[in-house]
Every structure is written in C-alpha cells, then in structure tokens.
Amino acid sequence: MIVVCPACQARFQYDDSRFGQARAKRFKCPKCAHLFEVANPATTMSLPPVQEEPLPPPPLTMPIPEQEPPNEATLASAFTTARRDRDSILVAAGIQQAGLPAGFKFSLAFLTGPQASTVQVLDRPVIVLGREEGDVITQDPETSRRHAVLEIRGDGTVWITDQDSTNGTQVNGERITGTVQLLSQQEFTCGNSTFMLLIRNTNEYPLH
After folding, report:
1. CB 163 within 8 A of CB 73
2. CA dihedral over 141, 145, 108, 199, signed as positive or negative
3. Residues of 84-102 as b/e, b for ≥16 C-beta within 10 angstroms?
4. What is the largest CA-CA distance in the chain?
5. How far apart are CA 6 and CA 36, in angstroms?
6. Global confidence as pTM
7. Nearest to residue 160, comparing CAs of 122, 132, 202?
8. Which of 29, 118, 161, 165 could form a disulfide with 147 if both were Cys (CB 3.0 to 4.6 A apart)?
9. Nearest Cα to 190, choosing from 144, 135, 124, 136?
C-alpha cells in the first residue's frame, strides 16, 4: 500500500500485511519526522457499507405557463358556460327543473333587419343569436356568425351577453360589455337587426 504523510504529502511504500490484526499503525515520516496513524486497510474493507437514505422523489409539478389576462368577451363566454353547467348539475340533482321556468312564456320579435315583422318563441334556457349559426338566425350580414347569447334563468329573468361580435350588441343605444339584464318589451340591436324581448306571465295572464 502507499502511505501518504498528512503533513508534507510525502509518499512511501508499506507492506499492508505487516498490520497483522492491529487496527492501525503509527508511522514517522522519513522526510519531515511527522508522527501519524494509518488504519489497517483490511479492517476498513471489512466494515459494512453505509446505507444512505434515498432522497424523496421530486414533487410532480408542472410549470404553469404565463397567460395573458382574459378579455371581457372571454369572461362573458366563460360565465355563460359556467352558468349552463351549474344549471345542468342542479337539474341532475333534482333541485331545479330542466327547461324554462314554469309560469312564463318568452318570445323575440324582429323589429328591423331581414327577419322584420316576425316573432320567434324561445323554448330553451340558453339561446344563441347569429347570422347563420345558433337558435335565432338573423340572416343579417352585419351580424356575426355567433353574435350574442340570451340566458333565461330559473327566476324568470333574461340576460344577454355579446360574444365578441364585430359590430357589438347595443341595449338602450349603448354597446354592452359583460352580461346585461333585459326586461320585457326592452329592445336590443345586433348588427342591423333590432329585437324586442317579450315576457308573458301565464299565471297572471293565461293563454286562451
């Protein structure tokens, strides 16, 4: 074996069989006369290896990408989707009846635009208005493909949300942002088409 002096780093050869049963041998460095001990390599090799505790695995996390804040149209669309999902859960739980609230009839009258002088009955809680897609088709080139959404809630109130349309949705002559409540006989405009919401309380005014 090679013995190294810890003081001057001098190296010299030593027969490790001369350790015998001794755990260590005391040496005197022939170069600097420093006294030091060297452990018996046979004893050191017989020691069991130290078992290191395994490191815990890293947490399973994914980096969260940076996102731009949603615009008002995205928030409005997300609100409508969340509301629709909430109503579906309540219906499935038997807390809320499916479809429109009892005791009301809802209609939409076309005042101007390609469909002027016609009336369409609203027969579902969420109505999509659009040029060529949705529940109420305007056929109006100034209306976006999916222009606005009408939401009829369980308490009989009606709310409108613009779907980030090109020309916007106006209520009382002002372009709306977010979700706005509509009252019975209130007008709103999508593109060149103007509508009037009609809400009839059939409990107070029964249909004949």
Report:
1. yes
2. negative
3. eeebeeeeeeeeeeeebee
4. 124
5. 8
6. 0.52
7. 122
8. 165
9. 144
d(CA 101, CA 125): 9
pLDDT digits (tens, 9 = 90+) for 146-155: 999 999 999 9
DSSP code for 184: T
SS3 assignment, position 31: coil
The residue type found at 144 is S
Tokens encoding 3: 């013995």
pLDDT digits (tens, 9 = 90+) for 138-193: 999 999 999 999 999 999 999 999 999 999 999 999 999 999 999 999 999 999 99
Amino acid letter for position 193: S
The owner of tokens 């030593």 is 14
The number of residues in the chain equals 208
Which ranges constitute the DSSP H helices of 22-172? 41-46, 72-92
Whether residue 159 contacts residue 180, with contact meaning beta carbons closer than 8 Å, is answered with yes
Which residues, other chains included, contact 175 with Cβ-Cβ below 8 Å and sequence gap of 6+?
162, 168, 169
Q: Which of 12, 63, 56 is nearest to 38 (CA)?
A: 12
Instruction: Check the CA dihedral 41-47-48-49 and report its sign.
Output: negative
